[in-house]
Amino acid sequence: MPRLAVKNATLTVSIMKILDRSHVQKLQLKALDTVLFGPPLMSRHSHLKDFILVVSIVIGMGGCWFAYIQNRYSKEHMKKTMKDLEGLQRAEQSLHDLQQKLQIAQEEHRTVEVEKVNLEQKLRDEINAAKQEAQRLRELREGSENELSRQKYAEEELEQ
């Protein structure tokens, strides 16, 4: 070991056949550590460390599995939500269309009511005019002395 710790090119190149300088430097450094500080201590195998490592791996795998299940569940839930949202959007559009049709129908109903009121007023005016004309003709007939003119006024009155 002391011979390796010292820079000895003949030992590393000719005897050990190490040509790469970085490998030679690493070997010299390890040999120097061994000479100065002694051989590395062999650590005892710790069962507690192994147990903790296994438990950590199991917990990690369980966490990954749980995340996978939650991801799958959330994707399914998102698909259902999107379908529901599309259905609500179609229902909203249908409602909007129905509201427009209702507004058009209400406008037509108002127009018809106005026309009805106007037509009723015209008919009342015509009826009142006809009654007034009939009243005038009755008065003329009753005030008439000639039978022929009375008959003529009576026919006009009936017409009214």
Automatic annotation (TrEMBL):
<dbReference type="InterPro" id="IPR037608">
    <property type="entry name" value="STIM1/2"/>
</dbReference>
<protein>
    <submittedName>
        <fullName>Stromal interaction molecule 1</fullName>
    </submittedName>
</protein>
<keyword id="KW-0472">Membrane</keyword>
<feature type="transmembrane region" description="Helical">
    <location>
        <begin position="51"/>
        <end position="69"/>
    </location>
</feature>
<dbReference type="InterPro" id="IPR013761">
    <property type="entry name" value="SAM/pointed_sf"/>
</dbReference>
<feature type="region of interest" description="Disordered">
    <location>
        <begin position="138"/>
        <end position="160"/>
    </location>
</feature>
<keyword id="KW-1133">Transmembrane helix</keyword>
<keyword id="KW-0812">Transmembrane</keyword>
